[in-house]
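We emphasize that the prediction below concerns an isolated chain of 251 residues; any contacts that depend on oligomerization or on bound cofactors are therefore not represented. The input was used exactly as deposited, without trimming of termini.
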Amino acid sequence: MNKLKNKVAIVTGASKGIGAAIATYFAAEGAKVVVNYGSSKEGADKVAEAITANGGTAIAVQADVSKEADVIRLFEETKNAYGTLNILVNNAGVYQFCPIEQFTTDSFHQHFNINVLGSLLAIREAVKLFGDNGGNIINISSEVRKMPISTGSVYAATKAALDAITIALSKELGAKNIRVNSILPGSVEIEGTHSTGITGSDLEKMLIANTPLGRIGQPDDIAKVALFLASDEAAWITGEKISVSGGIYGF
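Result of the prediction step, given as a token string:
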């Protein structure tokens, strides 16, 4: 399995959920993976250790992507470990849902600093580290940017911004052979959907009822598409927003 042989990839927010699945799939296809985490060292170490136990190559690196100095250090440690970079997956993100009456500026800045600023900082540093053969950037967006749900206005706004960044930078960086794409997951069962009470809720039942394929997504569903976009099989794809949602477009 060598779709990503000799490639180096950074996956932000990879200590659990979709990020962990992407890191695992990349490593299984030959990539050397940097498992980034913000606070869950135990989770990131577990992902990296599982990769190496299965014959892959991975290191865990702490960095809060909302902090410029942390992002710079993340890429410096990647260069020190592997010498180069070929793939960046901007997966780190935060989401909170609340009525507009409970909206706070702190929540706004937390969402935009992690989901948007963090991605821009990571892309800036990735472009510096990509070699002469170009590189590959995958932004993990969300279907909510097309179909915002009630109480999710701020989160949806960050994902709409991320998709705009994907389009603009695909045009800006194409001449350098750097591809930029977004993946838009639908509802995916991850740790956060359990901790926030979405799993098993009426909202989840409504989502399933309006999903043609009749189920909630799993992290592997997203990781498989990320692997395709990261591989040479997707060499003619850039600036795209790819829905991976079981067919749900609105409800």
